[in-house]
Amino acid sequence: MNATFTLLEMRRITRDWAGMFFTAVLPAFFYLIFGATVDAKDATIGNGNVAMYVMISMAAYGAVTATTSIGGNAAVERQQGWGRQLGLTPLADSSYIAMKALIAMTVAAVPILLTFALGAATGARGSARAWVLSAALCLVGSAVFAVYGLLVGTAFRSEAAVGAASGTMVIFAFLGNVFIPLSGALLAFAKFTPLYGYAALARYPLTEGYLPDGSQDPLWLPIVNVLAWLAIFGTAAVFLVRRGRERQ
Amino acid sequence: MTTTPRPVDGASGAPAIELRSLVKSFPARRGSQDAEVRAVDGIDLRIEPGEVVAFLGPNGAGKTTTLDMVLGLTEPTSGTAKVFGRRPREAVVGGQVSAVLQTGGLLRDLTVRETVRMIASTYAVHSPVDEVIDRAGLRSLADRRVSKCSGGEQQRLRFALALLPDPRLLVLDEPTAGMDVTARRDFWDTMHADASAGRTVVFATHYLEEADAFADRIVLVAGGRIVADGTTAEIRSQASGRTVSATLPPGSVAESVARLRTVDGVHQVEERGSRVLVTAGDSDAVARLLLLELGGTDLEIVTAGLEQAFMTLTGDGRDTHDTGGARATRDATTHDEELVR
């Protein structure tokens, strides 16, 4: 890990105030609308309430939006020739990806902290263990989607890649039982989609696997989902990053 | 600030660059009849430490693809590329080779100094950041955003980045493409000041005057192959020597042309009405023959310029500054047409 490189990148990315505003504030706003102000917010789920459930979901959504966008921007930079410039240095692909993932997670911490702070102020309830573990799982799991952003951006090779990657997050959030509670066949399908495992794992310390429809997931299910998608994204990203080094 | 020559290490006996039967093909674009495009079509080349070599050729000749393989940015389809006897990527990691790329991107929202610091941080050992900024003439621009720098200034920044590992081999791919005349002169002045200290320099260009002015050796590339290799003077003579032309008496042209074709060292004889154009190595002998034996008048002798040599050898009669990216043709018919023109 290269501290100078990472800090310079961090400074550069956080200079974009407009982008930071949307990454950090939009999920918090979603929480206020879908969590803090709904009638069912005090209904019990797991060891807490629905407001907490929605809060964790939105924090997770905000975190992956941040990491996907940073990953996508990394791909655009490479497409503009920065990848060739870096290809002339000793920097290894794995170090580059690791640094970008670290930066993405640091930025992802912002919407998590903001949404959790709002939740604490507006009646989200859960065990102390659930608060701490959920925040940590939101953060750690979001790294998977930094790799996803890099993958999508590298595949599309254009500025639109960033928008496309963020856009797919909304779709995955609906498909992944993040925005609205799913049931029946759609829920069965959801368990195979990328955001399902991550969001379910982040909520697990609160829900202990229980879903809004009353069913329960075993712990291994979200873990296997996350690891499988990490393997898929990681393998594809390394392949595409290598290909991206060659001139088009 | 002077460059300290690197200590001689174990690999110093190896050539700076050694290419063997190097081939790179890309899949053809959709709709094309060809199965693949051979950007580099069998290049053998050896460049010794300390040489300053120009890779000269029209756009699409395969220069950039060849240099990409030298830098480990692209894997050859077949053949090998070695840099100081090592695999290119190892030489890059070891800081023995660096480059200024034609399409090397910079991050627009970093400042000049931040960019240099960032790239410097990837090397275990590197020249001091401020020293490199000074050597590239960027001190007054150090805190400027890259997006606010002109094309020439950005190119000097890429040059600064290339100086960071204090490389033994510096590769420059079309370093002055898109610069105006003043910026090009400034860039080469900076290069001369810095890179003359025993560094091996290989640069690709399609500007003949740059190759002529800066290189000791010119490698002429067309259609993915080396078509000539030597000093500027050698390239000139290898291409076409001199062209002798004269007007011959009516009726004797066909006979004289046949005779001229038998003379040693005559490359080519053309008829244009009663005038003949003879391209030959020994122009004096041809002139003597034309004037004394064949009754020629209005004799002219023209030395082939480097530009003419370039066009003859690459078979490319188009404007050499063309930026269309078209491939040099190796089609024999076209080749002859270009010569007639």
Keywords, please?
heterodimer, A: 248 residues, mainly alpha, two-stranded antiparallel ribbon, 77% helix, 2% strand, B: alpha/beta, Rossmann fold, Alpha-Beta Plaits, 6-stranded mixed β-sheet, 33% helix, disordered C terminus
How does this model look, in words?
In chain A, 77% of the residues lie in helices and 2% in strands. Chain A is an all-alpha fold and 248 residues long. Chain A has one domain (3-245). A two-stranded antiparallel sheet of chain A has the order 1-2. In chain A, strand 1 (44-45) and strand 2 form a beta hairpin. In chain A, helix 3 (50-87) runs antiparallel to helix 4 (93-121) and helix 3 (50-87) crosses helix 8. Chain A is globular, with a radius of gyration of 18 Å. Chain A starts with a helix and ends with a helix. The model of chain A has no long low-confidence stretch (mean pLDDT 88). Chain B is of the alpha/beta class. Chain B has helices spanning 63-70, 88-93, 112-120, 129-135, 151-163, 181-195, 208-214, 232-239, 253-261, 283-293, 306-314, 332-340; strands at residues 17-27, 36-47, 52-56, 78-83, 97-100, 169-173, 200-205, 217-222, 225-230, 242-247, 266-272, 275-280, 297-303. Chain B folds into 2 domains: 10-235, Rossmann fold; 236-340, 2-Layer Sandwich (Alpha-Beta Plaits), CATH 3.30.70. Chain B has a 6-stranded mixed β-sheet with strand order 5-6-7-3-8-9, sandwiched between helices. Chain B has a 4-stranded antiparallel β-sheet with strand order 11-12-10-13, with helices on one face. Chain B has a 3-stranded antiparallel β-sheet with strand order 2-1-4. The N and C termini of chain B lie far apart (51 Å). Chain B is elongated and about 75 Å long. Helices cover 33% and strands 26% of the residues of chain B. The interface between A and B is medium-sized, with 27 and 33 residues.
